[in-house]
Structures are given as C-alpha cells and as structure tokens.
Amino acid sequence: MISTYSFRLASLRQEGSSGRRGSIDSCDETENALYYPNMDAGLEHKERVLQQDLTRRIECCLTEAKASVLQCKVLLLPRQMTTRVSRDVLRSSTDEPCGLRGASIRVYVETKDGLKSLGCVLPDSSVTPTFELSVLFKVDDDGWKPLKHIFESRKVLKLRPEYKLIKRKLYSSASPVIHEFN
Description:
30% strand, globular
C-alpha cells in the first residue's frame, strides 16, 4: 500500500513539473487539486489543442512580464491556473462571430500599488479583434505578516486562485460583462 502511494506521488510530481515554462511555478494547494482533477476531460481534440496553445501563450506573457513589469524572480501560480483561465476564455468566446480568433486578450495583475498591464495575447493576428477579454489576476498579499521582512517580497510573487474575466465587445455599445472565478 505504501509503495503504491509513493509511486503515485512521484508520478504526480513528474507530471506537474514537466508542464511549466520558465520560472513560473505551481504552488501545490491540495484543496484546489481535488476540484480540478482532469482539466481536459470532455474537450474535443480541436478544443484541447486551442486550450493548450492559449495556456502556453498566457504562460509566456506571464514569464515575459515577470522580470520587467512585476520585478520578481519567481512567480507562483495556483495549480493549473493558466489552464482554468484558458478554458474560461474559450468558453467566453464561443458566442462570438469569429470565436477565439476575434479576441484580444489583455492580461493584468492587481497589486497593492494598483493595476499593472502584463501584456496582450492575440490568438490570430490576421483577424481584426471584435471583442476584448481582460484577465485580472490578484496578488496574494496574505501570508505571515510578521515574517514578511525575512523573505524579500520583490523576489517571489504569489498569485491568488481567484481571478476576473471581463468581456467587452469592441464594436458594440453593450456594457462589459464581468465574470469572477475562484
């Protein structure tokens, strides 16, 4: 029984570490891992490929902004967060005329200093965007406040599992739609 358990832990570590790019690391939050056991379940092959490509693009955007805009060396994300974000972006684009191809995805992070723009993802640069999706991540400032001075806060930045997705149609007077995810 113990050998089965340790084998499963070892295989989980290998799966989790191979999907990361750069120094964006996953913070293993065990309570969230139970809610998202297999993010690709139920997706068709084409949707899965779109989601994987979008996940990769969002991770690249975060990696590029890490040193420049965020001024940190390590960016910690909750487990499978970029996969959840890309899934929700795909769902938000299904009712659009051009689908995901017509999206302009802006990535922001909300810090104690205000909102910072991390970059933009254009799924298809040959299509003029018809709608804008803004992804707002939140910095996790909660922690052990008395021990914060020990760890240099500029070197490690941790994002909260909650985020907002704001959808705004570019050629319409309709007001933006805000979705909050936990």
